[in-house]
Specification:
The chain is mainly β and about 120 residues long. It contains no helices and eleven strands.
């Protein structure tokens, strides 16, 4: 945006006129109407049988609902944003998250993401 001040005045009459020109840059963020990009993480990723794994959503674009799948875990599914899961058998386990908002959904599966040791 540019603001210009102009005046018609005659310096011969003893009037001094100053003109000012200022340049402004206006930046405004605009929300995008987009579906989430699903992301997930866990802590810890390696546990002993019977230990709890804390999962959390790391999706972008503001998901408002979550559909988790934990084959081999208890519970085996959840709609919580940050569920806790217990694994009682040794092995490696996949985890799937479907993140959804009013503009759509996205799915991520991390194969062999959780390792449960025999101890």
């Amino acid at each position: 945006m540019q603001i210009i001040y102009e005046a018609n005045d005659d310096p011969a009459d003893g009037h001094l006129v100053e003109a000012a020109v200022d340049v402004f840059q206006v930046t405004d963020s605009v929300a995008t109407n987009t579906a989430p990009v699903a992301g997930l993480n866990a802590n810890p990723k390696t546990v002993c049988r019977g230990d709890t794994v804390n999962f959390f959503d790391s999706s972008t674009n503001g998901p408002t609902s979550w559909d988790w799948s934990f084959p081999g875990g208890t519970p085996s599914s959840s709609n919580a944003e940050a569920p806790q899961v217990v694994y009682t058998s040794a092995g490696t386990y996949d985890v799937t998250l479907i993140a959804t908002n009013s503009y759509g959904s996205d799915t991520i599966t991390k194969n062999s993401f959780i390792t449960v040791d025999t101890m």
